[in-house]
Amino acid sequence: MTLLTAILALVGLALIFGAILGFASIRYKVEGNPIVDQIDALLPQTQCGQCSYPGCKPYAEAIANGEKINKCPPGGESTINALADLLGVEPEPLDAEHGEESVTKVAVIREDECIGCTKCIQACPVDAILGAAKQMHTVIASECTGCDLCVEPCPVDCIDMVPVAPTVQTWSWEQPVTPAELVQAKNDNLIITDKGRGEAA
Amino acid sequence: MSQAIKLWDIHGGIHPAENKEQSSQKPIRQAALPKKLYLPLQQHIGSPSELSVKVGDHVLKGQRIAEANGFISASLHAPTSGTVVAIENRAIPHPSGLSAETLIIETDGEETWCEREIIEDYRHTDSRVLLDHIRNHGITGMGGAGFPTSVKLTSKDDDHIDTLIINGAECEPYITADHLLMRERADQIIEGIGILGHILKPRRCIIGVEDNKMDAVEALKASVASHPKTLPFEVVVAAIPTKYPSGGEKQLIQILTGKEVPHGGIPADLGIVCQNVGTVAAVAKAILEGEPLISRITTVTGNAVADKGNFETLIGTPIADLLYQCALDEDDLHRLIMGGPMMGFALQTTDLPVIKTTNCILAATEAEFPNPATAQDCIRCGMCAEACPAELLPQQLYWFSRSKEFEKAKHFNLFDCIECGACSFVCPSHIPLVQYFRFAKGGIRAEEQAHIKSDRAKMRFEARQERLAKEEAEKEARRQARAEAAAKAKAEKEKAAAQSAESNEDSITSTDNAEADKKAAIAAAVARAKTKKGVEASAPAADLKALKVASSQARAAYLKAQRTFDAAKEAGELTPEQMTEQEAEVVKLKAAYDKAKADMDAARSGGSGTTSAPSAPSVDNGSQTADSGPDLKALKVASSQARAAHLKAQRALDAAKEAGELSAEEASIQEAEVAKLLATYEAAKKALDDAKNGVSTTVSNTTTTSNTTATSNTTAAANDAPAVDIKALKVASSQARAAHLKAQRALDAAKEAGELSAEETSAQEADVAKLLAAYEAAKKALDDAKNGVTQNADAANTGTAKAAEITKPAAETPAPKTLDQKYKEMKVQASQARAAAKQAQKAVDEAKEANESADQIKALEDALATAVQNYEKLNAKKLVLQEKVKLQKEAPAAKPAVSDAEPTKQTTETETVDPAQRAKELKVAASQAKAAWRKLERELAAAQEAGETTAELETKVSDAKAKYDQANEAKTAAMDALKG
């Protein structure tokens, strides 16, 4: 009898929890793969295609499906680290086959040479080039992701990729150099020179 | 008056050597007026000020020269009278050593003041007016950061200010600017406190001064006692124990009130506002004397200067001038620092101005400030954590910063670090901790910025994708609509053909007109005409029928054209030029139809009275048309089948390609198949066209023997058939072109992907060339056909002047068009050739990179040379054609005869007509030439680097350069002409 009660109780519990879980799986069903969006949020969104995927989202999808995380040169090491954190894998060095991490660049059209062919406009993935047929084109620098995609189509070779110069607003301190280099650096900005003339409180 | 208040202690802190007595001995002196003042537009935190003067303007002392731009910003004023001589980018005193926009004033030495705005009775003035006044007078925090004071004083409604804290601690070694100010101008500070008190309405005010400046404390106490009216609230002067960094805002608040500013919060959250004594004095000057922030007290000290002391310095004074006054020994100068030794930064040059935040210039000797000792490994002694006034874990933050684990550093409250340098000071391993923290802070900020930017880029990218998808869908819809319209038109045409065939049959099989009457309205009309009127000529009934056929054909053609035109118009696909072209065609067709109808009517009326049966020729004519009808149909079906097959294959190929399923070899095989199908289709089409031509010739054969009215029939038919031909050929030609382009693209893609070996590439290139040839053949056929139309029409029209009138415009229009098209075609070819040359170049480069055998490279280089030659040839042709087209365009269209008769006149016209257009073209040509030249130059450089022989390339480069120069000259001449 006791045995039967126990079995019945367990079966009953199993049914109840099964029903709850079944309901939850339908009620709280997640559309799509949420990890793709999380990965996509970490990618630099230059849409440059250097990873050999046609944009950041497709690469995010590929990563979710097991692609390597080290194919994004614009993102560089920090993106790889963030992806490794998110996915719980070991960070790898950037795959040199897809390009190297470089300084942020912005496309600049030499405007007096532009013939107004609109080819770069069609190539820009973020609509950052302004112009019309037979009119001079120009790049909206604040929207340019520096993806390089407009350089190739230009028939008169008038697009330059210019590194973004730091302004007083965007400048930040560099990482301190190694001890050996530190000795060399005469113009180092550290002023901890009163050493020995005071003590910690 | 001022009673002792309870003081709290802060965590950590250090006691560096003070070194203050060197500069605090002498009273504040006025610095000499420099020849030039350099005023950076950004001397504060926030956005740079906006210039309100221009070069050459004469400015007066105190005149506003740049206005606050945005909420967190400050105005800038002329420190003395003089002339604005330049506004340029100059190095500014900033740790980065970067340049920023700087306004340069040449002083006139007269110190002429502008009109000053003074608020004498501030106690009865609204605090908003006072805040505006402070903002307009450019007051920023004088302690170090330079935060706009008016912003700090603008409190939100909900946080009532309980305590006003005046920061006179000046804890940093060497600096005595605030000390001297408190000692000598205590009254000014007290007046300023009165003003701030009026704005903020605090319950009490505490002035915090370190106890190493007791003379300043006494002066302030005396001043507070003598200003009972100014201060309607409790004012306490508190002497606090000397300890670095008690002068930090958060630290001073903690010492004086025991409250800690929460993480991410501001003192106002605690009901506290903290202001530096210098700022308070500047506020008093601005309100009571109307003097904006144009000067400040700057300490000049350090062992490299002999005459140390404090100077009332105009903002913008070059540091070199100031140091010169203090007798700087340049040989002794080892390091120049702006600010104090703990939180200041080193300057690279003395050619920098004093700005609003320059409280100290420290010219140190090497003995005083030796180079920092070599950093060693962290020994985890924990002294940094003991010294940290913000109670952080510098050691932990150091590890995270060093390994760029910014997220974790943030988690350990990196942003609560005030960068006071206490940790670095106590570090026995001499690790530059603060520099690591600054780096990490910058890295985190940069990441945040990058994230914001990437979000925006993503948004824009997605918006673009959406737009493209929408455009594609719209295009598809238009295509569908067009296809439907075409199908409908076809159906109607077939119906019309069936009708005419029926009526023909009627006339052949019986003379019983009454039956035919019932069947169709046209037939009825014919019957009526036949019964009522007689036939004039030898075979009037047959004529009539032929005319009827011609008329209905013309009508069908007209209607179809009209429909397609309307559909196109609705879909808004056409450019205005295309529209007018099509409209002209429709009108033409309409005219043809009208003509045919009129002729038919004329024939009908001419045939009145006659009731004879149709004669033998008419039967012939009818049966011939009827016979050729089915043939045509069959051919048409065959042709459309071939076309469908071709399109299907093409689609399949495209799909496969997109899916990326095919290897390059498979793709090429399939492409070959597509090409084959295309060929089949073209053959079918040709057969169809031939058949059609046959029909029209038959028709014309039968009718040329008949009277003049019949000629119009021929004309109409001839017009109709070739029009279809041309269309078909056009389609074929564009298909061929599309196939060619696709192949080209596929080839490019494959090449880029680096999938193909050089041999495969060349094979594919050959394919592409083949396709190009096919395209050209198609194009030629099209042109021929077009010319054929003209000839046909001409042949048909020789008989009658009337008919000629109809076709003449048709014959005239294609001629100029052909030339234009030829030019375009040539342009396309030229650019294709150029692309081919480019590709060949690429192939050569790749081969070189891949270290392939010399023979292969040689072969590729030969290919490149031929491609280049090809391109140049084509380009030359293109240019010739371009000239021709221009000539033609410029020649007045109304007078075609003139062009033959007076070619010389025309050339003179060309030169004068439309210089703007010409200039533009020349510009394009010039930039193309430049691009070519540049490219060659790059190649040359690459070759030189690679250590290859460059003689050939050099000549090429010089050629290209010469070409470019020529083009450029032409361009400049044209531009000048245009301007002139």
Identify the notable features of this structure and list them briefly.
heterodimer, A: 201 residues, mainly alpha, two-stranded antiparallel ribbon, 6 helices, 5 strands, elongated, disordered C terminus, B: 980 residues, alpha/beta, 6-stranded mixed beta sheet, 4-stranded antiparallel beta sheet, 18 strands, 61% helix, 9% strand
Compose a concise summary of this entry.
The complex is a heterodimer of chains A (201) and B (980). Chain A has helices spanning 2-27, 34-42, 56-64, 76-87, 119-123, 179-184; strands spanning 105-109, 129-130, 138-139, 159-163, 199-200.
Explain the overall architecture:
The complex is a heterodimer of chains A (201) and B (980). Chain A contains six helices and five strands, in the order H-H-H-H-E-H-E-E-E-H-E. With 201 residues, chain A is mainly alpha-helical. Chain A has a two-stranded antiparallel sheet with strand order 1-4. In chain A, helix 2 packs across helix 3 (56-64). The longest helix of chain A has 26 residues, at 2-27. In chain A, 29% of the residues are buried. Chain B is of the alpha/beta class and 980 residues long. Mean pLDDT of chain B is 75; it is low at 509-518, 532-540, 606-630, 694-724, 788-817 and 891-912. The longest helix of chain B has 77 residues, at 433-509. The chains are: A mainly alpha (201), B alpha/beta (980). Chains A and B meet through helix 4, helix 6 and strand 5 of A and strand 1, helix 10, helix 13, helix 14 and helix 28 of B. Strand 5 (199-200) of chain A pairs antiparallel with strand 1 (14-15) of chain B, so a sheet runs across the interface.
